[in-house]
Amino acid sequence: MCHGGKCTVVKLGGSLLDLDDVADRLTCIVTDLHNPVVVVGGGPTANLVRQWHTRRLVDSSEAHRLAIAAMSFNAVNLCGNDRRMCLVSSKPEATAAAKRGKVPLIDILQVLKSEQVSNPHDPGLPVSWDVTSDSIAAWLARVWEGELCLLKSVEAGSNPAVHLDAWFQSALGNRTQFMWVNLRSSDRVPTNITLSHTGDVNV
Prior knowledge:
- The chain is an alpha/beta fold.
- It is built from 7 helices and 8 strands.
- The protein has helices spanning about 20-30, 45-55, 60-80, 90-100, 110-120, 135-145, 170; strands spanning about 10, 35-40, 85-90, 105, 145-150, 175-180, 190-195, 200.
- The strands form 2 sheets. It has a 6-stranded mixed beta sheet with strand order 2-1-5-6-7-8, sandwiched between helices.
- Strand 3 (about 85-90), helix 4 (about 90-100) and strand 4 form a beta-alpha-beta unit.
- Helix 2 packs antiparallel against helix 3 (about 60-80).
- The two termini are about 25 Å apart.
């Protein structure tokens, strides 16, 4: 891993957590990325929160918080099962972890709280199911002025936008490029994606 300059925010899709070797696959990918910091998706845990919200057991604001907390829970669980991983709550902590040879996984609930306070003029994240871990990772990459790499369960295909949430383009801001990896694939070759401001996607 490189330890100087900008970082690469890596989003590990929650749907990938059912892979027995997900930690091995993640470690192999981040080794080739510049200063990787990993955002873990909510997966089935966040889907449970969505069900609670649909049944009106929690309101929109609480559902939003719980879905993000589910992402932190998954990161904690992944760290607890693999010594190569390390839970971090800030960009400096991520850099320090990488210097120790660890793969830094973000406690996204804590990071979002601190970053939204540190960036009061940024519109932040809407309280909406239009915002998934893809947009959260894209927003963080923009705020931290880093690159973005999405680890997904599918190939990007000719229209990757169908696999992204409705707020993703807004989360990117003025950025147009990011990387995409189908982590379920045997070759796991990154694809460079260019998203135009009109919503068109090129691979």
